[in-house]
Specification:
Layout: H1 9-21, E1 24-25, H2 26-32, H3 36-44, E2 48-56, E3 59-66, H4 68-78, H5 90-101, H6 105-110, E4 112-113, H7 114-120, E5 130-133, E6 139-142, H8 151-157
Antiparallel strand pairs: 1-3, 2-3, 4-5, 5-6
Length: 158
């Protein structure tokens, strides 16, 4: 099987980004330092799976996610709580991925997913979609608010 022979830091960062935000699209690839040819190698190596074409903000977009093998690796090797994404919230997760990919490396490395936050703060009914720490040590909660959120849900997230 062909695929990734030498894994670069950009490859690992791409896998972490997908693990923390749900998926990646080709138009977001440049933010991760990966080109479409390298993405194809990840698919061949069974790190990334083509999940199909979906309508995101009026555009037909091909969506890529992690394979089960890659998810296991992210959990065991990098201790990442995989972000739970599904086809009903692709626009939400697209914005989340875009926010994440614009962060500095150290901020990305501090990222805790909603799943991880729920695990840490079991007493909370709701948490934000993610949280990261700035270089100044400030904790920033990230929440992508959609039309489906009630005022009560927004207050719980705060």
């Amino acid at each position: 099987m062909g695929g990734i022979k030498i894994e670069r830091e950009a490859d690992i960062q791409l896998l972490k980004a997908i693990a923390r935000t749900g998926f990646i699209t080709k138009d977001l690839l440049h933010l991760s330092g990966i080109n479409p040819k390298r993405l194809a190698q990840h698919i061949k190596s069974e790190n990334i799976i083509d999940k199909g074409i979906y309508l995101i903000y009026g555009q037909m977009v091909r969506v890529y996610g992690l394979t089960e093998k890659a998810k296991r690796r992210m959990r065991s090797e990098f201790l990442i709580d995989i972000y739970k994404s599904d086809a009903t919230q692709l626009e939400h997760d697209y914005v989340l991925a875009k926010i994440y990919l614009h962060l500095k490396l150290e901020e990305k490395e501090s990222w805790v997913t909603e799943t991880g936050l729920m695990e840490r703060y079991k007493e909370c009914v709701k948490t934000t979609d993610g949280l990261y720490i700035t270089s100044e040590g400030q904790k920033i909660g990230v929440e992508v608010v959609t039309d489906s959120y009630s005022a009560d849900e927004i207050e719980q997230k705060k």
